[in-house]
Amino acid sequence: MATTTARRPAVAGNATLLARLGAAWHALLAVGLALGAWSVSQADWAQRDGLRPLATALIGLGAVWSVAAAALLLRPDRRGRLLSLGLNYVLSVGCLLALLGTLGLYSGLDIVASRFYRWAWLLIGVLAGYLIASIGDRYLHAPRTQAAYHRAGRWVMLGTIAVLLLAMGLPQGLIGLLAGLRQLTALALLAGLLLCGTAFWLLWRPQAARAFGAGSRDAEALNGYLFIGPNLLGFLLFFAGPLLFSLWLSLTNSDGFRAEFVGLRNYVNIFSLEFAGLEHSGQRASEVLSPGFVELNRFGTTIIGAKDRLFWIALWNTVVYCFWVTLLSVVPALLIATILNSKIPGMTFFRAIYFIPSIAGVVGVAVIWKWLYNSNIGFLNYGINQLIGVINLLPGVALDPVNIPWLASQQTALASIIIMAAWQLLGFNTILFLAGLQGIPNDVYEAATIDGASTWQRFRTMTLPLLAPTTFFVVTTTLITTLQVFSEPFVMTPPPGGGPNNATLTAVLYLYQKGFNRFEQGYAAAVAWVLFLFIFAVTLVQFRLQRRYGEM
Amino acid sequence: MQRRFAWLSLLAILSLALAACGGTPAAQPTSAPAAEATTAPAPTAAPTTAPTAAPAPTAAPTTAPVAGEAITLRWRTRPDNQAEIDVYQTISNDLDAEFDNITLVYEPGGSETASYQDVLKTELAAGTAPDVFWIPGTDIADFATRGLILNLRDLADADAGYNDADFYPGPMFHLTYNPETGKTGEALWGLPRDVSTFALYLNLDLLEQAGAPDPRELAAAGKWDWDAFVETAVAVNNLGGDIKGFGMNAWWANPGLFINSAGGGFFNEERTACALDTDESVAGLAFASRLYNELKVAVPYGEDSEPPFLAGNVGMFLNGRWATPGTRAGATFDWDVVEVPAGPGGARSWLFWGAYVVNANTAHPEESWALIRALTRADTQGKISALGANIPSRVSDEAIAAFLTFTPPENNQAFINSLENDPAVEGPLWAGSWPEFDNSTQAKFTAVLNGDLSIEDYKATVCREANLAAFGQ
User: Fold this and answer.
1) Is B53 helix (H, G, I), strand (E, B) or coil?
2) Contact assignment for B465 to A294 by CB distance below 8 Å
3) Looking at the structure, do residues A364 and A482 belong to the same domain, yes or no?
4) Closest to B423 measured CA to CA, from B260, B285, B262
5) Nearest CA to CA, how far is A95 from chain B (Å)?
6) Is residue B149 within 8 Å of residue B357, measured between CB atoms?
7) Are residues A69 and A171 in the same domain?
């Protein structure tokens, strides 16, 4: 009891000291961050891509966070410790990453990789060391000899690695590091790393946890966050960050170099449609549509105009492509999977055959199909004409040879790409269905057979319902894949893709053209978000249907 | 043991990271960004005359590499094949040996289908683009008005050996255009790497088989016009089977050739609005449409015509000088070239060009200028021309004389004749967006040539949509 009484003041004293130190640090940090936010708001470089308000807000948020941490630490409140730990962790990692960038680590990695390829043969030494150590295993009866061999092997391996590191530029790296650290930016980042790291360590220690009255739940939460920290930061940096940044871009007129906030103008342009009546069906669109609108389509005496006609064409093409590719790659896949699921000799071979197109690269496959589709020297027209030749052997038949411009005609171009894509996706979907079919217990079928169910009845009333989760997965992934179609029309039609006459222009190809051919990154980002919402809505509908189907 | 292994692994990783700090990455542009983008006013006049004056002798660059600290310059072109990459690499090595303190790093860019410009723009945005790079003539305005390339006028004025007139005036009109004043001759956005014109690549075996007159003889006699061209195409096409009389690829210049030869053009005189709906321009496209939809003598528009031509299935294939290396390598028949046929407006080929430009963010503008001066020297251009892919951009008798010796084709003069026959100059759009214009009009051309759009509907809509897309009007 006396001991406990004696320790309490110490803990309280620690807490007070830590709280004051932490609050002072965070007050300083808040001032620094506020100054940083102000300086960014004035900086020219931040003007690019409209980064200025975004960066200012982000750094300002850090300042507010720091103020909150300081206030809570002074109480002292355990939430202050949590806020402080979080901020110091993020700042230390940020300083470390920026420091590595300033020291040229990221660009230097490429060079290290190329040097590694050059000197990789040195790794033979490691193998040699391993073999030497292995020889020692033969001397079980002579421990000294065995240990000597082991030691020699280890040194050979270590020596080889040391030589390899020297060859790969370790000394130059050390010199580069020292030279890099002479830069003011690098020194500031190093100081930031050390300060934030120290603050984090001081508050992380069990003594600090006790001093702030942190319970096991706090410790558990902190351990959990620290454990997922690298992944979470990666997710925020490389996924959520760019995602939100693209949302911001979609509200600007960014051309990749400069940006101004334009609000919802990009979205308004995308969705601007105008319906007008025509005096007669042949009337010119320019006579009835407002300036800025071009004809999208006409139905009888009604004309639809759009500010961004290409977006609607691209969306329509994407939907058509998605529908047909899904239909042609899912239904046949189910049938093929059912056949492949039977126990007939040679089925393994056929499973592999059907799967091969799926493992081939899309671009390679597209290039091959482009040649197959060539109207003049392509195998497809050649094959059709050979068939016509055979048919013409029949008495009274005289069919003309065909010269179908598969990819050059706007009537056939999209269909040609659909056929190719369905062919390529078919195998993958087949394998998924096959896995689903093999998960259905055989005794269910046996019971149904005993009850007198026919093959069709078994398929309709048992296979299809039991396969519903697989079907849902296959349809969802196929839909998402096809709604994002890009490579096929990009490769198979003349640059910049999407021809002829926009017949194969798809939503992703359109946003690529806007963003990269025409320097309209802001507009492209808006198209991307519209496409995202579209895919999200389609998937949501599917989920609902799946739920309802599952309940039936 | 496991603990020791873990520590050793960590040490190895840290060592590798440390080694990366000492890497010597290629020099990154580091200087301040270029001037603010400006809204480009209209040019004063588009060039219409081709160079006919006697070519001036070429001068060697006098801007010596700056002495002092060794620097690295990265430069890039858009090669079409490995042979071209090899030639550029050799040139880079030779120039590297000439320059005392400059290390040249040649980076072959992707081909056109690999989106050369798109990659370049991304690198420019990321600040990792090379110091010097090549871009097509149509892209100059886009890059210049966004402040992505340097105005080299001051450097050129300080270079005693440099003269704008050493190069063909068509490309130089656009390359010296100042968007702020709307006058040409005031700026310098780069130097033309090469020029090229269109010609018809002939399958002489097919022509002989069809009993068609030799287009080269007709051209020499001044009788190579649209009527003769149609007769020849029909005669070859009548051979039947997969044989086609004519073929051209799907991009703006091909329908544009017929539009130009009919006396029309893409833009008005000031290049501030579309002129594809004038009677002359429409007549040109209507003629091309006749080849596809009425006479049906052409490889479908939108299909690559080069493979069927190389397979011996096409009598006449319209393309630029850059198709020569492929034809040399792939044609197994007797072939040659002839000038494009004359339409009502004459035999107006295109004058294609591309230019070496300097990254606005380069840390070494003087050295970059020295490099593009060296890259456009007569001897350097001669090495590239020997490949057969292009014509030197210098107005030089020597250069042309050398070019004529690079056979086959025997009739290299056809390309030079096109240069002298008032070609329409490929050019940027200072007052609008070329990619938008191209995209809008290409769809219309395709629709007409594939028979999906009547020429009347084309005339009524083409400029309305193109003006809206490219000029915002």
Assistant:
1) coil
2) yes
3) yes
4) B260
5) 16
6) yes
7) no
For residues A268 and A254, give the distance between their C-alpha atoms in angstroms, rounded to a whole number: 16
Q: What is the 3 state secondary structure string of A406-470?
A: CCCCCCCHHHHHHHHHHHHHHHHHHHHHHHHHHCCCHHHHHHHHHCCCCHHHHHHHHHHHHCHHH
Strand stretches in A200-344, DSSP E:
273-277, 294-299, 302-306
> Which band of pLDDT confidence, cut at 50, 70 and 90, is reported for residue A368?
very high
Q: Is the sign of the CA dihedral A325, A330, A335, A339 positive or negative?
A: positive
Regarding whether A336 and A244 lie in a shared domain, the answer is no
CATH number, domain containing residue A484: 1.10.3720.10
Tokens of B428: 């940027």
Domain ranges of chain B: 71-195+352-425, 197-351+427-471
Which of A175, A408, A494 is facing B251, going by the closest CB pair? A494
The identity of residue A177, as a single letter, is L
Residue where one domain finishes, among candidates A146, A165, A180: A180
Q: Number of structural domains, chain A? A: 4
pLDDT digits (tens), chain B, 473 positions: 567 777 877 887 787 777 777 655 444 443 433 333 333 333 333 333 333 333 333 333 434 444 456 789 999 998 877 878 888 999 999 999 999 889 999 998 876 556 788 889 888 988 889 999 999 999 999 899 989 999 999 999 999 999 999 999 999 999 999 998 989 999 999 999 989 899 999 999 999 999 999 999 999 999 999 999 999 999 999 998 889 999 999 999 999 999 999 999 999 988 999 999 999 999 999 999 999 999 999 999 999 899 999 999 999 999 998 888 889 888 999 999 999 999 999 999 999 999 999 999 999 999 999 999 999 988 888 888 777 777 888 887 877 888 888 888 999 999 999 888 888 888 889 999 888 899 899 999 999 999 999 999 999 999 999 999 999 87
- pLDDT single digits (tens) A105-150: 887 777 788 788 888 888 899 999 999 999 988 888 888 999 999 9
Same domain? For A173 and A160 the reply is: yes
Residue A11 has pLDDT above 60, yes or no: no
CA angle A425, A428, A431 (to 5 degrees): 145
CA distance B378 to B56: 11
CA distance, residue B242 to nearest chain A CA (Å): 6
The hierarchical CATH code for the domain B71-195+352-425 is: 3.40.190.10
β-strand partners of B72? B103
The answer on A468 and A485 residing in a single domain is yes
- Of the partner residues A175, A499, A519, the one whose CB lies closest to the CB of residue B302: A499
Last residue of a domain, one of A234, A249, A264: A249
Decide if A98 is inside a domain.
Answer: yes
Domain limits at A168? 106-180
Assess whether A193 and A45 both reside in one domain.
yes
Query: Do B21 and A108 make contact, defined as CB atoms within 8 angstroms?
Result: yes
> Does B117 lie at the interface with A, CB-CB under 8 angstroms?
yes
Whether residues A544 and A439 share a domain: the answer is: yes
Task: Look at domain B197-351+427-471 and name its CATH class.
Answer: alpha beta
> Are B310 and B290 a contacting pair, CB within 8 Å?
no
In this structure, are residues B197 and B422 in contact, taking their beta carbons and an 8 Å threshold?
Answer: no
Q: What is the ipTM of this complex?
A: 0.80
Asked if residue A398 is part of any domain, the answer here is yes
- Distance in angstroms (rounded) separating the CA atoms of residues B259 and B267: 11
- The answer to whether position A326 is within a domain reads yes
Does B409 sit behind a cis peptide bond, omega within 30 degrees of 0 on the bond before it?
yes
Nearest Cβ partner of A255 from B117, B146, B314? B146
Residue A504 falls within a domain, yes or no? yes
Q: Are strands A294-299 and B244-248 parallel, antiparallel or unpaired?
A: unpaired
* Among A164-173, A457-466, B83-92, the least confident range: A164-173
Write down how long chain A is: 552
A460 residue type, one letter: R
The residue assigned the tokens 């960590």 is B10
